[in-house]
Design goal:
Number of helices: 3
Structural class: alpha/beta
Number of strands: 9
Strand content: 15-25%
Mean pLDDT: 89
Low-confidence stretches: none
Distance between the termini: 27 Å
Number of domains: 2
Helix content: 25-40%
Radius of gyration: 16 Å
Largest sheet: 4 strands, mixed
């Protein structure tokens, strides 16, 4: 995720996932989540533990799993969005693709670590 100075606040324990965009003066409280591909408008506050999904962002309380899952599907699903896994294949094959790509990145980036 590319972060540019936008006068935003991300609290300790909050999560901002791949491809998410935070508008100017927006914030994510402790334990909040901004999911893949989510676009948070300027001056939006995501409360403690709440989840933002979609473009534009829709906010859901913790435990409201059905609309959160639906919002993630709009983005194409986590593994296809983040790792480029084929959404037409089964979850197992998506996981294998993601792990191969993630492992290759770790090898590339940490080859010279001591």
């Amino acid at each position: 995720m590319e972060i540019k100075y936008r006068e935003m606040f991300i609290a300790t324990g909050a999560m901002v996932f791949n491809g998410a965009r935070m508008g100017r003066a927006s914030s994510v409280a402790r334990g909040g989540a901004v999911h893949i591909g989510c676009v948070v408008p300027p001056e939006t506050r995501i409360p403690i533990g709440w989840v933002a999904v979609g473009d534009p962002a829709r906010l859901y309380p913790p435990g409201d799993a059905t609309p959160i899952r639906a919002g993630l599907e709009e983005a194409g699903g986590f593994l296809p969005f983040v790792f480029g896994a084929d959404p037409a294949v089964g979850r197992g094959e998506q996981m294998r693709t993601a792990l191969r790509r993630y492992t290759a990145m770790l090898v590339r980036e940490h080859r010279d670590d001591e």
